[in-house]
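Re: the 286-residue chain
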Amino acid sequence: MAQQFSLTSRQKLANGLSMPSVHLGVYLTSGQETRNAVHWALEAGYRAFDSAQMYRNEKEVGSTILKFLSSNSNTSHLKREDVHFTSKLASNGSYESARKSIKQSVQECGLGYIDLFLLHSPYGGKAARLDSWKAVEDAIADGEVKTGGVSNYGVKHLVELLASPIRVLPAVNQIEVHPFNTRTEITSFCQQHNMVVEAYAPLVRALRMKHPVITSLSEKYSCTPAQLLVRWSLQHGYVPLPKSVTKDRIIQNGQVSGFAIDAEDMEKMDGLDEYLVTDWDPVDAD
């Protein structure tokens, strides 16, 4: 029987904690647009939000979460620990600069702690990557961060980190992954080493919504192309981060429990890989 997924589904992490299986992405949103998206998502049942220092919206996301929790809209009586907040280090550098930067993010979001903190990219070189990871480890030890991970790391960066004398294993690698860029080498390595793959740009930034395979399978499963793409991520064991600032689409994108993609159709979608990069691609950085 196909696994059921909903906005209340959770993914276990290597450190014994868990996180929601679907997160709202807030990349390239700001101000009231961010606040609206987060509020609508919370109303729709989303329990996780993916921000970053580079997005410059940690404060808007955090304040909207806190406002919702104390409002009449919070009909499920959610507490802070029921909502998962992610942020990311803008750039790798010295231990001191990274440690200070993490503290600033905790203060900026106003949530008391950050559930998941990632190194946003492997840029900066080996020393900067490892020093920055030490800062994440110490932030976890100090209670500022619950779980540490990385983003845009290629296999060589993951091997480098795992081969180093680290105290905390990265629980997550957030990368661009969707049927048009399957990144099998990276995803396989992550899953073999008990790292959850978070899929950013799971909707391919709407560049392939009219692809004939996507449209035909959407018709077959009576779902939207976006729902099909979110479901593909989930069935691969990934945690997708669908982004929208439109209320109806935010709601729709989370409604993926009413169907399951057949194994044959999953293979058909996997076969669409064209290494389509919709934003940046640091996975081969030195």
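The CA atoms of residues 96 and 123 lie 17 Å apart.
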